[in-house]
Q: What sequence folds into this?
């Protein structure tokens, strides 16, 4: 079985999390920026590079380890079959660069043409916040950990 090393960024601003959807593939759930590591790249380097590629933004903040996750893919359209060994990071910013925007991923890891992303913020604490089941292939599994971390930080406990 092929193993792919992946890194993702859960970026928050206040109670909101940056997510994206794929307008050309509405059946794909919500995602967070990240993707496949390049050879010799650390998880942190890959997280920062992939974040920039998928959002058009460069992060100049500290990222903290959030969680590791193994997720197996088999016959999922536009995904590499095999074990995706994911490392998730959390970062916080004080001001949103934009409320909503579109950006193209020019080099998808599974190959093919550029992928259009619609990036926006969701309030994780709102009554109508998306459930973890609306996220693509396991990305929602980290939501409770992110929320707990945000609550601790907002209460002044680090």
A:
């Amino acid at each position: 079985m092929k193993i792919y090393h992946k890194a993702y960024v859960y970026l928050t601003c206040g109670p909101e999390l940056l997510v994206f959807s794929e307008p050309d593939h509405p059946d794909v759930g919500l995602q967070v920026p990240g993707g496949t590591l390049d050879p010799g790249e650390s998880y942190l380097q890959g997280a920062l590079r992939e974040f920039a590629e998928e959002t058009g933004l460069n992060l100049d903040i500290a990222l903290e380890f959030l969680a590791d996750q193994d997720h197996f893919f088999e016959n999922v359209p536009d995904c590499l079959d095999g074990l995706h060994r994911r490392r998730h990071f959390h970062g916080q910013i004080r001001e949103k660069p934009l409320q909503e925007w579109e950006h193209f991923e020019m080099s998808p890891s599974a190959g093919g043409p550029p992928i259009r992303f619609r990036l926006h913020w969701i309030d994780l604490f709102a009554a109508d916040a998306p459930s973890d089941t609306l996220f693509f292939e396991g990305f929602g599994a980290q939501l409770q950990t992110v929320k707990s971390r945000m609550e601790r930080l907002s209460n002044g406990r680090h």
Remarks:
- Helices lie at 43-55, 143-154.
- Strands lie at 3-13, 16-21, 34-36, 64-73, 82-92, 100-105, 115-123.
- The mean pLDDT is 94.
